[in-house]
């Protein structure tokens, strides 16, 4: 579900504004299906956010207030965004760290790098999706580690503890509508166009948000999996994450929770009291526990997938890193392979990375601002 129309936020107190809401079934690429229905609703601004005047038509299910000042109110699965004064330009820039102005000479250098590449391999990280409104872990001032002392779930804890799985899925259930509605930004679309034009040999992403797929990329390896799939830990059955959301709703028809912050990969912050009554369904096939089809911290990437990416790196003639600090070894190892193969390496990332000393070119700019400036032909 996603917001399909405009929402006015610069309103005096107690005035009204029209906004268009969609109750939409999504296609695999995240676009509304032909059966989507559009409704209009009248809202009144109040200290608590935007309140529907015609509440008989709309069912308020829960409100999520983020640490950054954005409040999301879900109305039958549709997102209404209430923006505070500190983010009137929209939520997509909230998680992009500060950066210096784009250096025209650096842009020219990157253009030369791409022009000379005939078999370019691109590896992306969380920094390519922050401009789509998805927070990352390590960015200065705006990443999860900078905003809070919370840390991501560990694989070992998830597979061993039912209460840990319950807490994870309760939080993910709350965060899923917003996370799954995120759309590709100009960086994703630029890389997709590079593939269409024959410039991109292969794309490797460390992200689990499916935004490259939504943008149309096909020569793609999702190194850490994808949140849009769910895996049974017992029988290996895979199901779409949207199907699990429907099962959650059926099992928890009266469950309500207010989130106290937003984290990467569809996670939000809930209290232990909020989580205790949340019910988690088992695998519909064998009754086993369910896990998102992603590599949690503390887990390892499938060796066959690692070997596949190593082969793609060795086939390439250059490597471009986009939006990754390369702090995690699962991605950093491919930089080491590129170095062994004597490939030129360029890095586009706001802030230092683990491989700056190995790069022939380093740029500190937002990915969505810079990549569309590059002509891949």
TrEMBL record:
Binding site for Zn(2+): 232, 235, 283, 286
Signal peptide: none
Pfam families linked: SIR2 (PF02146)
Top-rank lineage group of the source organism: Eukaryota
Active site per the UniProt annotation: 224 (proton acceptor)
Keywords, alphabetical: Metal-binding, Mitochondrion, NAD, Transferase, Transit peptide, Zinc
GO molecular-function term, one example from the UniProt record: histone deacetylase activity, NAD-dependent
CDD domains per the UniProt record, alphabetical: SIRT4
NCBIfam families to which the protein is assigned, alphabetical: PRK05333.1
Its job: Acts as NAD-dependent protein lipoamidase, biotinylase, deacetylase and ADP-ribosyl transferase. Catalyzes more efficiently removal of lipoyl- and biotinyl- than acetyl-lysine modifications. Inhibits the pyruvate dehydrogenase complex (PDH) activity via the enzymatic hydrolysis of the lipoamide cofactor from the E2 component, DLAT, in a phosphorylation-independent manner. Catalyzes the transfer of ADP-ribosyl groups onto target proteins, including mitochondrial GLUD1, inhibiting GLUD1 enzyme activity.
Protein name: NAD-dependent protein lipoamidase sirtuin-4, mitochondrial
The gene coding this protein: SIRT4
């Amino acid at each position: 579900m996603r917001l399909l129309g405009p929402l006015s936020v610069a309103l005096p107190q107690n005035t009204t504004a029209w906004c268009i809401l969609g109750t939409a079934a999504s296609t695999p690429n995240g676009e509304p299906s032909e059966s989507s229905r559009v409704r209009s609703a009248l809202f009144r601004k109040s200290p608590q956010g935007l309140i529907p005047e015609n509440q008989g038509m709309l069912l308020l299910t829960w409100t999520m207030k983020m640490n950054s000042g954005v409040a999301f109110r879900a109305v039958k699965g549709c997102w209404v965004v209430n923006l505070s004064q500190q983010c009137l330009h929209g939520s997509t820039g909230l998680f992009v760290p500060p950066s210096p102005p784009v250096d025209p000479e650096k842009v020219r250098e990157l253009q030369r790098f791409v022009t000379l590449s005939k078999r370019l391999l691109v590896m992306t990280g969380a920094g390519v999706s922050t401009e789509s409104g998805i927070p990352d872990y390590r960015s200065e001032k705006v990443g999860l580690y900078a905003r809070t002392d919370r840390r991501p779930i560990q694989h070992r804890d998830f597979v061993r503890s039912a209460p840990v799985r319950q807490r994870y899925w309760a939080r993910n259930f709350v965060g899923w509508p917003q996370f799954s509605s995120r759309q590709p930004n100009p960086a994703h679309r630029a890389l997709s166009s590079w593939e269409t034009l024959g410039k991109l040999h292969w794309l490797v992403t460390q992200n689990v948000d499916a935004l490259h797929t939504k943008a149309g990329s096909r020569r793609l390896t999702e190194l850490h999996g994808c949140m849009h799939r769910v895996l049974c830990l017992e029988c290996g059955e895979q199901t779409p994450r949207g199907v699990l959301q429907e099962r959650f709703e059926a099992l928890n028809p009266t469950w309500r929770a207010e989130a106290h912050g937003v984290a990467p990969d569809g996670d939000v912050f809930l209290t232990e009291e909020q989580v205790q009554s949340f019910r988690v369904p088992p695998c519909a096939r064998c009754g086993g526990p369910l896990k998102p089809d992603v590599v949690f911290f503390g887990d390892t990437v499938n060796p066959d997938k690692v070997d596949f990416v190593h082969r793609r790196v060795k086939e390439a003639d250059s490597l471009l890193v986009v939006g990754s600090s390369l702090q995690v070894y699962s991605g950093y190892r491919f930089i080491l392979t590129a170095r062994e193969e004597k490939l030129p390496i360029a890095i586009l990332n706001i802030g230092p990375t683990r491989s700056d000393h190995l790069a022939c070119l380093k740029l500190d700019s937002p990915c969505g601002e810079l990549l569309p400036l590059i002509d891949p032909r």
